[in-house]
Amino acid sequence: MQNALEAGNACGKVCLLLHKCFESIGVSNRIAYGVFEYAGLKNAHVWLYVGDHLVDNTYVSLTSLENFVTVKKLIKYMETDPDTVTDLFLGDEDTRKLGITDHTIKSFKWELQNSDKSLEIMKNKIQLKHYFGVMREFMAKRYEVNIDVSRIVHETCWNCNGKFDKLLKCGKCKVALYCGRECQKSDWKNIHKLICLPPNTF
């Protein structure tokens, strides 16, 4: 699964889902957004703290356990606003050739502040939809809890947050909802164009 996620800039979405899973069974945890540094390269990143334990989905695809442990020990995690780091790596031609989209700090901040909306949009990405489904099934069987997004995601305008009887769907992602064209245009300009994904995106 992680191999499929590597090209998805998925750390934020995976952490949001894990956060929701932990919360559903009463395990206290918090999401951390900042920078990790490895081999001189600084990346904006999202990870979890469960108690005093740091939980990170990065590098789990390494086949050698020895290499995995070595890398983990060398990573430096910093809870600092990525906007304040001048030499931050956000993507280059090599990563784009691999299909990895540039890291957009604005969209990651939005995801962390709007977790249910982010999780709903993530289902449009094939690999993440599968991951979401696997986790939902696991939590249902193991803990008898239902992991899903809040009803408010389906009942309110994504721009003004008002509740309306009728809402318009974004024509591209078929997920985001709006009370009218003005709110849709405003949200597209502010953030939605950065996070909008058509269904079945690889």
UniProtKB/TrEMBL annotation:
<dbReference type="GO" id="GO:0008270">
    <property type="term" value="F:zinc ion binding"/>
</dbReference>
<keyword id="KW-0863">Zinc-finger</keyword>
<keyword id="KW-0479">Metal-binding</keyword>
<dbReference type="InterPro" id="IPR002893">
    <property type="entry name" value="Znf_MYND"/>
</dbReference>
<feature type="domain" description="MYND-type">
    <location>
        <begin position="157"/>
        <end position="196"/>
    </location>
</feature>
<dbReference type="Pfam" id="PF01753">
    <property type="entry name" value="zf-MYND"/>
</dbReference>
<protein>
    <recommendedName>
        <fullName>MYND-type domain-containing protein</fullName>
    </recommendedName>
</protein>
<keyword id="KW-0862">Zinc</keyword>
